[in-house]
Amino acid sequence: MNKISSKLLTGFKYIYLVAFFALLAGFFHPLITNTSFDGVVVGVLVLFVGLSGAVLLYRAATSEKKREIYLGIGFGLIAISLYYIFQLTGRT
């Protein structure tokens, strides 16, 4: 593959992730109830924090070097994401 199609494919993957996370975070709820999109934006950001933690855990499983660093940061990001979810739902 050439550079242009590779960059387009990479861009499409990220656009797809953002769209999927927006739908997962409840994109249509503010449209139906005529409220603000702040919750959707925060929800998408929380999902990306959790995803980045999961990616780091995967990197820890496949990496020979820096395994402990990837594990620590990955679990830390997942814990931060879980904390944000509890904050958003009011369960703290």
Defining key terms:
single chain; 92 residues; mainly alpha; flat
Describe this structure in words.
Helix 3 packs antiparallel against helix 4. It is built from four helices and no strands. The chain starts with a helix and ends with a helix. It has 92 residues and is mainly alpha-helical. The model has no long low-confidence stretch (mean pLDDT 89). It is flat. The longest helix is centred in the middle third of the chain and has 25 residues.
Radius of gyration: 16 Å
* Helix and strand sequence: HHHH
- Proportion of strand residues: under 5%
Secondary structure tally, helices: 4
- The gross shape turns out to be flat
pLDDT below 50 for ≥5 consecutive residues: which ranges? none
Query: What's the N-to-C terminus distance?
Result: 49 Å
Oligomer: single chain
Give the % helix.
over 70%
Summarize the entry for a quick read.
By secondary structure, the chain is mainly alpha-helical.
Layout of helices and strands:
Blueprint: H1 3-24, H2 28-33, H3 38-62, H4 67-89
Helix pairs in contact: 1-3, 3-4
